[in-house]
Write a structure and sequence with these properties.
With 117 residues, the protein is mainly α. It has a domain at 9-65. It is built from two helices and no strands.
Length: 117
C-alpha cells in the first residue's frame, strides 16, 4: 500500500477510466463509419477503373477510334497526310457500270397429304 499519508482515491480513477472508455468507444464508432464510407468509395472507384479499362482495352471490334488527330499522333508520325499519297489524275479515271437483272424467285408448292401405300 501507500507509504505515509498518501491515499489513493479509487472512485475518481474508476470514473476517469469510464470517461476515457466512453471517449474511446465514440472514436471507435466514428472510425468504423468512416471506414465503411471509404470502403464503399473504394469499391465504386475500382468499378469505374474496371469499366474504363474495358473501354480502353476492349476487343478490336470495340476499340475507340478518335475522329480527330492529336498532337501526340502527329509527333509519332501516325497521321498520314493526303499530299503524301500518290495523286490521281482525273484523265486516267475510267467509269465502269453494269446492270444486274434480278431473277424471279420460285416458291415450291407444298405437298398435299401423304402418298397412298
Amino acid at each position: 500500500m501507500a507509504a505515509g499519508g498518501e491515499h489513493i482515491n479509487y472512485k475518481e480513477l474508476y470514473e476517469a477510466l469510464l470517461q476515457m472508455n466512453q471517449q474511446l468507444l465514440q472514436n471507435n464508432q466514428q472510425l468504423q463509419s468512416s471506414n465503411e464510407t471509404l470502403h464503399a468509395q473504394l469499391l465504386t472507384l475500382q468499378y469505374q477503373i474496371q469499366q474504363l479499362t474495358k473501354l480502353v482495352k476492349g476487343f478490336k471490334s470495340e476499340r475507340f477510334v478518335p475522329l480527330g488527330t492529336s498532337q501526340q499522333q502527329k509527333e509519332l508520325g501516325l497521321v498520314f497526310e493526303e499530299s503524301a499519297a500518290p495523286g490521281t489524275n482525273l484523265g486516267d479515271v475510267q467509269k465502269i457500270s453494269y446492270t444486274k437483272v434480278k431473277k424471279p424467285t420460285v416458291t415450291p408448292e407444298p405437298q398435299k397429304g401423304l402418298p397412298a401405300v
